Predict the 3D structure of the following.
Amino acid sequence: MSFLSFDPQTISKKDLHQYVIGAVSPRPIALVSSQSEKGNFNLAPYSFFNAFSSSPPIMIFSANLIGQPAKQKDTLRNVTTHRECVINLVSYPIVRQMALCSVEFDADISEFTKSGLTMLDSEIISPPRVKEAVVQMECIVQDILALGNKAGAAQLVICRVVRFHVSKEIMDDDLRRIDPQKYHTVGRLGRTNYISVNGDNVFSVYQPVKLEPLGFDGLPEQLLRSKVFTGNDLTRFAALEYLPDITEIIEYAKKNHLPQHQENDYYHKMAKQKLKNDLPAEAIKIALYEGQ
Ligand SMILES: Cc1cc2nc3c(=O)[nH]c(=O)nc-3n(C[C@H](O)[C@H](O)[C@H](O)COP(=O)(O)O)c2cc1C
């Protein structure tokens, strides 16, 4: 790999912004509902956003200052004076309506009206939720951290969730966990690109928690040097608890009629197929078979 390496202070703010949003992606999108001093409701998307703690439940989004002289965006002004907001999570069915909310409308124009999204009363705070959002979090603004006072400078809004609303439609059958296939959340990438999370995009990664996995240092050179296996493939082997011994390997080969006297690559390709079928313990026996 060859790299473009640079000091972030030496490139334009615009280019740096694209590096940041292109690299740290996908990012979830908070569609933030807030209330102005006059009592108007505002709605705007923020993708410099994430969850930072579940105990207590803390979300942070960042609103940068704009214009010369630098001024606050409506959301930031609102949460500075009225320290409440609803963080509505953006999923695919509302992604285009969310984008419409990012237009810099005058403060007295409601993005709810412009985007066609529906206000739904919150239970604890006064800014409304977005009815169409499948996850809504009523928040108290705990702190606002200014990272500068010039145009572009980020202001971190630290929010504590006081009421959580999750649509039953996105839960699994026993209503205990959010099902990513039903959630269909979206993430923001660089430029104007987004990703929709569903179908084959969702996969699970085996996490060895209590086992004592072999690790890469426990794998034979023959596998580590293979041109067939990627880092992810080798990790499936490294996550196993033990290496099969020669007797097990030969028994497996006989029972499954593995062809004899082939090159290592031949067996490695067969093993890779087994990995695709989620059978790493079988795959390693094939990968280590030497056709004897
Ligand atoms: C998907 C998306 C993500 C955005 N993320 C941010 C962000 O993290 N920080 C920010 O200051 N502006 C962000 N923006 C731009 C704001 O939404 C935009 O400036 C908006 O007009 C602010 O509205 P407000 O003045 O009503 O708060 C984003 C826009 C879009 C479409």
Summary: Residues 29, 42, 44-48, 62-64, 73-75, 99, 102, 104, 188 surround flavin mononucleotide (CB under 6 Å).
